[in-house]
Structure formats: structure tokens, C-alpha cells
Amino acid sequence: MKFVWKQPYFVFGFIILAFFLIGSFVFEWINGPDPKQTFFIYEKGKLIEAAPLSPSWANPFGTDQFGFDMFAKIMLGAKYTIIAAMGVAAVRMLIAVPLGFVIGTYWQKKRSLLNSFIDPLHYVPMTIFSYLMLFPVLWEPMEGFSTTVWERIVIQVVLMAIITVPIVSALIGNEANLLYQQEYILAARTLGASRRRIILRHLFPMMREKLFVIYGQQVVETLVVFTHLGLLQLFIGGTNVSYDPMFGDPPKSIAYEWAGLFGSSFRYLQGVPWLPLAPAICFALVILAVAAMIEGYTRAVSGHVKIPKRKKDGFISEDIIEWNQYKMKEKLQLIRKNEKENTSKL
Fold it and tell me: What is the mean pLDDT of the segment spanning 214-223?
């Protein structure tokens, strides 16, 4: 993994992610869990501006309609957004990878049937499934939440991961099945290697780089679904709902995560454009960072070929031994066949 740090794309994306993720914890540790609030700006005793305040040196992203600093809200909510997206992708891969290898090796005859059921899911927006499953968890009832913010985030991560496990499993299963038909895999099977050994010793090492790329793609897809859920007023960690019929506030985010900031301020796009644009730009930066890390990792892997060095004690890997044994058996069978043909001719 050391060679990926020589790729500028990977380093660029890593710096952006580290800035938001580490900076979020540091910002909360220094400034506290609540953003500063400024309702009015006075100059020489005269009222200059009232909330929402436009961007300035004091407030780089301006303030919302309640006077809260948008930059502080974005930094406080960065950790929830990024950790939730990475968590959804991680849980999804932990379930889909072993299931995909099983589909590609043990269930080869059933693979086409499974794909016929899974393929239609590509055409159904995952936002719809996510909204239907997460609404009872994230929408605040009249009596208030009975769970904490992190508990709701964990439930959301697990449910969003399960939704797309069939699609990712089918994708990995198709890739594993293509490798399973290669000649060196057939040689290992001929020599008596079990499917479990083939998965651990051959398929997983060959697909390791591709699995990293798929993980990055799942992170990007999760961030996009978060923005869609934000527009539907369903926020990460829960939606704070006011049931006051006279003076009720609109739904707002509890954890200041970016989907909530974007969804709750989207209606101000024309009058106060910096409110929805600030979280939208941060979403775009994180997606760009993940895409850059994938590109950098792909370039590093494709341009870095590891040549195994032979040790002084003459150590040879088991795969090479198996391959040589397979070749020797082929030669012996060919020699015996020729001897039988010559004998029959005589």
C-alpha cells in the first residue's frame, strides 16, 4: 500500500477527506457542540444586516435564517455524514463480498436465475426503498425519539446497507465466476484444491483491487442517496419535527449533517443561495475526493507490478508447485498416450 501515496490523485482525495473528518472532531473539541449565533450586525450604532447574514470573513458561508454560522454547522456535521456513508459502504461490502464469492463458485448453476431476479433492482431508485424503510426510524414522533442519535445512525447504516446487498453481491459473483473459469483456476481444481481454498488463495487476491474500487463507488452512491433523502426531509440521525399548529418550525437536522442542512435550506435557493449551496459544495468535494482516491489507487496498482524475489533457501510458492505438478501430469499423460498409440501400430 505504500506505493499509493506516490499518486497525487490519491493524496489529493485523502487530504480533503482528512480535512473534513479530522477537522470536524477538532472543531467540536475547540468550539463546542453548538454553532455560534448572530442575529444582527451593527456598525456605528446602525443596523447593517439581519439574519440570514451573507458570507463574510467572520462567517465564511454566512448564517441561516436563525443566525447560526453555516461554516460551524458544516464542520460539526461532517463527521456524521462521512462516517455514515463509509459505514454503509463497509457493512454492504462485508455482507456482499462473501455472498458474491459463494454465488460465483458454489452456486454457478443458480447464478443466472439469481441475476434474473436481481437485475430489475437496477432500475428502481434506492431512495424509494430507503425512504420507506427509514421513515419510522428517522421521523420524530409527537412524543419524541426513544433512541439516541448514534443509535439511529447505526440503524440507518444497517438498513441502507441491506437494501443494495443483492446488487453488489451479483456484481461480485459475476466477476468471481469469470475468474473461476480461468486456466490457472482449472489447474488448481484439477489438482484437488477445494472451492474455499480457491476463494482465499486465488479469487480474493485477484479481486482485491477491484473490491476497493467497488467500495469507493458505494461510498459515492450512499452520499447521493443522502442528498435525495435530505430533499425528502429525512435526515441522518433523525429529523426534528415541530408539531405546534401555530408556531411550528419546519423540519430540521438534529446532528447538523449535510443532508439535513441541504434539505432544510433548499427552499431558500433563490433568495438566500448560500444556505443550500454550502452543503452541496461540501458534498461535491467529498465525492470528488473519493473519486480521486479511486483513480489514484487504480493508477498505482496498474503501474506497480510486484515481482516476487526468490529467497536464498530456494523457497517456491505453493501455487507454482501446483502448476508444475499439473504440467508434469499433462506431459506424463501425453507420453503414455503416445506409447499406447505406438504399441497399437506395432
Answer: 91
Cα–Cα nearest to 233, from 275, 263, 265: 263
Q: Tell me, rounded to whole angstroms, the distance of Cα 51 from its chain centroid.
A: 36
User: Cell 452520499 maps to which residue?
Assistant: 223
Q: Which domains does the chain have, with CATH numbers?
A: 2-306 (1.10.3720.10)
- What's CA 322's distance to the chain center, in Å? 37
- CA-CA distances (angstroms) from residue 94 to 48, 91, 160, 177, 282? 55, 5, 13, 19, 27
Give percent above pLDDT 70 in the chain.
Answer: 86
**Beta carbons of 76 and 24 less than 8 angstroms apart:** yes
CB 7 within 8 A of CB 296: yes
Phi, psi of 314 (to 5 degrees): 75, 30
Average pLDDT, the chain: 81
Question: What pTM was computed for the model?
Answer: 0.79
CA distances from 80 to 76, 179, 233 (A): 8, 38, 17
Taking 3-state DSSP, the helix, strand and coil percentages for the chain, each rounded to the nearest 5, stand at: 70, 5, 25
Q: State the Cα–Cα distance between residues 126 and 247, nearest whole angstrom.
A: 35
The residues, any chain, with a CB within 8 Å of residue 115's CB and separated by 6 or more, are 170, 174
The b-or-e profile of 281-302 (16+ CB within 10 A means b, else e) is ebbeebbebbbbbbbbbbbbbe
> Quick one: angle between helices 204-231 and 165-180, nearest 10?
160
Q: Which three cell numbers stand for residue 211?
A: 473490491
239, containing H or E segment: strand 239-240
Cis peptide before 98 (omega within 30 of 0): no
Residue 279 and residue 257: Cα distance in Å, rounded? 9
Q: When comparing pLDDT for 250 and 345, which is higher? A: 250
How many CB atoms lie under 10 A from the CB of residue 111?
Answer: 18
Cell numbers given for 321: 508447485
Compute the distance between CA of residue 132 and CA of residue 145 in angstroms, rounded to an integer. 18
Work out the angle at residue 291's Cα, subtended by the Cα atoms of residues 285 and 295, and round it to the nearest 5 degrees.
140
pLDDT at 35: 84
